[in-house]
Design brief:
85 residues; alpha+beta; two-stranded antiparallel sheet; 20% helix
Length: 85
């Protein structure tokens, strides 16, 4: 997707910008704004409770896999003699 031009408009005592649907933000989504020089980054806000749940679920799934079996030894790699390199 290339650059899209839009206008900033006044909404109450604040200024606002309208994002096209192609940007994928749904109405009501909580976002964080980060000012970086002349750019503004808009990212979905992370919910700490939801992120902790995701990590807890991942750990549970990894534990359900059980212990790792015996690791097979690899054969040594023989490097050819390459004089001059």
């Amino acid at each position: 997707m290339g650059a899209i031009k839009t206008k900033i408009f006044k909404s109450g005592n604040s200024v606002a910008v309208r994002f096209p649907a192609e940007f994928g933000f749904e109405a009501g989504l909580v976002v964080t704004l980060e000012h970086d020089g002349t750019a503004v980054k808009v990212k979905p806000a992370l919910d700490p409770v939801e992120e902790k749940r995701k990590v807890t679920d991942l750990v549970a799934k990894l534990r359900a896999l059980g212990p790792v079996g015996e690791i097979q030894a690899r054969e040594p790699i023989e490097f050819p003699d390459r004089p001059g390199l």
